[in-house]
Amino acid sequence: MAKRTSLSVVALAAAMILSSCSSGSTTTEAQTTDDNSNYPLTITNCGQDVVVDAPPQRAVSLNQSSTEILLSLGLADRMVGTATWTDPVRDNLASDNAKVPRLADNKPALEVVLDAEPDFVSASFGGTLGPGGVADRSQFEQLGVPNYLSPTDCNGKTDESVNSDGARTDPLEIATVYQEIRDLAAIFDVRERGERFIGELQDRFDAASGAVTASGTSLVYWFADTATPYMAGCCGSSGIITNSVGAQNIYSDTTDEWPQVSWESVADRNPTAFVLADLSRRTLAGDALDSKIEFLESDPVTQRLQAVVDKRYIVVNGADLNPSIRTVDGVEKVAAALQGWGLAN
């Protein structure tokens, strides 16, 4: 594709109007003008209409979760950039991922994204594609670049919660992850691939969850931070995992996605097992698995917990606790650990 003349970022910024993604209760759905392969295609996404005139050929994905969906759909040859990584890519996607330029390990500058000349931008979080992120959705629209935000970050959330780890008004469902796959498959005109991939995920999810009923087992999901740790609330990706195995989350009484709590609170609720996120980043104390375990086994509040004495640690990737195809990985890992300990029927 011939290189288009670069636009001045300063001039663009003056012309761009900031607006946030409306979270609403609108169900994300694909609507075509005629049959399944005709364009333009309009998809209602997070309260906005995304209009795609043709299947994208130069896509940029701004979050790992979205990237792994596109790679799973066999779209590496139509991607010109990825960004904002929390973990290594899934092993089965590593070869294709190596073909796609990484624009940044973390959140890229808008100029870097524009230099890739995208004809489509996708993201998993409003914190990346929204106010305070790489750019607001309206900024890309001003440039004629269609953009898509994962419905996992707006369905069942208030406007204030879309751009943060705030409360969910409705629990996240695995069906919303499938809807994201279905939407992106429609946008890229690979619907059959999308349905096959959804079927594979459903089979894995059903096999893992159907083999386990861990009633009477309580879990706590520790993402990061040793001082005031981020523990999962009731209703995000961890909620899907917990419910799938029939267990209880000790913080099921909070709708905040990642509340910060005290260790005394954890001790009072006395979980059967810890689900520990092994993060590849090194931003906060307790990001790495080893540092989490070292803390649990040395802190005077936690070291006497039976889960710590028995070393009941379920290790997951950080990405497994984000709403994504990795949620199914999380279900499999938690189910396998509970079975191995004899804590599930």
Automatic annotation (TrEMBL):
Keywords noted in UniProt: Signal
N-terminal signal peptide: 1-24
Domain Fe/B12 periplasmic-binding: start-end pairs: 58-345
Pfam families: Peripla_BP_2
Superkingdom to which the source organism belongs: Bacteria
Protein family according to the UniProt entry: Belongs to the bacterial solute-binding protein 8 family.
Protein name: ABC transporter substrate-binding protein
Annotated organism of origin: Rhodococcus sovatensis
Taxon lineage: Bacteria, Bacillati, Actinomycetota, Actinomycetes, Mycobacteriales
